[in-house]
Amino acid sequence: MTEVKKVTEPGETIGLLEKKRPEGNGTMADMGVSQAELVEPRGDAGRKLPQYLAALAATLGALAAGSMLGWSAPVMVKLTDPNDTSYDFDVSKTQGDWISSVINLGAAFICFPIGMVMDIIGRKKTMLLLVLPFTLGWLLITFGTSVGMLIAGRLITGIAGGAFCVTAPAYTSEIAQDSIRGTLGSYFQLMITIGILFAYVVGGYTSVFVFNILCTCIPIVFGLVFFFMPESPNFLVVKGRNDEAREALVRLRGQSYDVDSELNNLKYKHEESQRNKVSYLAAIQKKTALKAILICYALMLFQQLSGINAVIFNASQIFEDAGATIPPTIATIIIGVIQVIATFISSLVVDKLGRRILLLLSALVMCVCSTALGVYFFLSETHGSTADIVQAISWLPLVSLSVFIIAFSLGFGPIPWMMAGELCLIDIKAFVGSTAGTFNWLLSFTVTSTFNSLNAAIGAGQVFWMFAGIMLVGFIFIFFVVPETKGKSVDEIQVMLGAEPSSHRPEDKK
Q1: Which of 80, 89, 137, 507 is the most buried (most CB within 10 A)?
Q2: pLDDT, tens digit, for every residue of 336-360?
Q3: What's the pTM value of the predicted model, to 2 decimals?
């Protein structure tokens, strides 16, 4: 038997089971290697700074995606103005709606195939290749000579942005130690919100041409920075490139870290998964896989049906109704600042408070805020905006809007994207992450394109009450179904999803 040492607590070691184990002993490792899991010494030694830098470099792609998402808010107001000279052609309101929303279709289209691509060529190469469509899309938008070119450019940037929504969370979850996995995972949503704020500020106070040029530079800067980051050690082990995996771990953890112990664990789990390999169909039919898929899809559903788009669409009206003499441009910037600050706070506390408590708090507060907004709009529609009862609560929509955005940014903004990386094993992770991303973008397109019609059909108050009801259901679902994954290893998470505890853990034999 070959024995290696694994540090568990300072000064304590235990024997690690030999790499070759008897066939047929089912364990959590049989189910595959988790991209979210890099088994580490329990003392949690090792340098954290290289991991933070790698995660920030990876999520510069999310910054590019955020600028793409925020682009339409300051730009479409200008383009649909008959007197605007940003382009040599006119843009109608209907065409503007298509230009704004077509990114959702591009993102939905790419989410599934990009999962397979990153499993074939790697996370790093996939993200670097995405610089090309991002740059091409922005060039089409910048130098467009027709509405068709703008739509094509937005579609292509949507494809690149949607791909980053799958690849960046997967990469950051794979390079992180358990103790900071949640923090690094939340960087994705943080950079998205910073990109949106960048679009609100720069797009509101520069020409469309200058704004487009700056947006074009962001993915290029990402490519230059991320080029020097290591590939995921987990992916390298799966591909049999163990020397490169060891080198990547040294770069991410430092020379003093017990790299060989972690590398042996990764190799061991991969070998076990290969010896006990099951068909893909069988993998997704396991009880743990089905529960993970249910949770991932449900969180995406509740995120998009939370009413976040409805709140943002009504932001200018809410500011106006509250008696705030704030120009629309400033109002959108205020919203962007609130999102960034709240998401940053979430990144600081997600590994301390946990995912579950933040999701529960987020759902409950958004439910209350949506109810309050529904009351305000219902009374305004019923009695008129000048009625005494409406004037008496003119402060309510502004407060509800601000608290709603804070609650969303703390929980339902960042956490659904990181859960696929934590709940799913490697044999189904690409499938679940990509299809959940597709589902999310299609829901976003549906909500965005139908909100105005729904608002006109049943009234703004009733729409917000509907969103409040959905978040109440979301709160109940999270309370009874979603496990807490804070600081948990892949085996521990799988047990919480219903798997049998392993009776042959590596620590059991010496």
Answers
A1: 137
A2: 899 899 989 988 888 888 889 999 9
A3: 0.77
